Amino acid sequence: MIELLLPPLLAGLAVALVAGPMGAFVVWRRMAFFGDTLAHGALLGAALGLAAGINIYLAVVAVCLGLAAVLTGLQRQRQLASDTLLGIVAHTTLALGVIAISLQQGIQVDLFAYLFGDLLAVGWHDAVALWSGALLILVMVLWRWRALLSITVSEELAQVEGVAVQRTRLLLMLLLALLIAGAIRTVGVLLITSLLVIPAASARRLTHTPAQMALVASLFGTVAVIAGLTVSWYADTPVGPSIVVAASSLFVLSLLRRGS
């Protein structure tokens, strides 16, 4: 049992660890819809990877990074509101991804696994790849932590302080895209944003500084992964939704703790 669960557990913990600080920025900057859009693009990346016969994870990373860069540029336009633009792109990429996967001839594709995650199918190679990506994201966040906080508080003030606002914003989007590309195996396309938002929202109610919120969000995400994986193993429930329900339970407990 331990040998079977250890790679999925390590993979889930890698995602939860980095989802803490990234989720904090998603909550502070109200980027949940942006995260959903990137997650839907991940499915399109998986479909393109299958069609081209290349490594699916690399295809997902490439599509998510490219989509993040494009969206960052498109959000500067004035014709459409940002949420309208994101809604169009999100559902278009999701629809294209589902259609592309359904058209794969002679390839057995578990669409449920892409939509809701398949953490129990993660092997040692996947766990190593996820930890490598997670450590890269954490290093970049720590390196640019002050600049990222500055543009979150006020982009105008950050610019006055000499922060390269456009490049820092693009870095944040690219790091978020990299995380989402990796997390597709953990909770799936439709639930990725919940693993970013829910632990961070829970931590926000119990902490007083940005650093505390990021750390507690990582802790809550870790607890949710362990609890969700345990429930899934013993109750035979889908892993991704089980992790999200565990995270939601922690959020409810944070409401009760704050109210007491």
Automatic annotation (TrEMBL):
State the annotated membrane topology for this chain.
Answer: Multi-pass membrane protein
Please list every transmembrane segment annotated in the UniProt record, as residue ranges: 6-28, 40-72, 84-103, 115-143, 170-201, 213-233, 239-256
Query: What is any one of the record's Gene Ontology cellular component terms?
Result: ATP-binding cassette (ABC) transporter complex
Localization of this protein: Cell inner membrane; Cell membrane
Does the keyword Transmembrane helix feature in the UniProt annotation?
Answer: yes
Keyword tags: Cell inner membrane, Cell membrane, Ion transport, Membrane, Transmembrane, Transmembrane helix, Transport, Zinc, Zinc transport
Superkingdom in the source lineage: Bacteria
One of the GO BP terms on file: response to zinc ion
Q: According to its UniProt record, which protein family does this protein belong to? A: Belongs to the ABC-3 integral membrane protein family.
User: PANTHER family under this entry?
Assistant: ABC-TRANSPORTER METAL-BINDING PROTEIN, HIGH-AFFINITY ZINC UPTAKE SYSTEM MEMBRANE PROTEIN ZNUB
The job of this chain, per UniProt, is described as: Involved in the high-affinity zinc uptake transport system.
Q: Per its record, how is this protein called by name?
A: High-affinity zinc uptake system membrane protein ZnuB
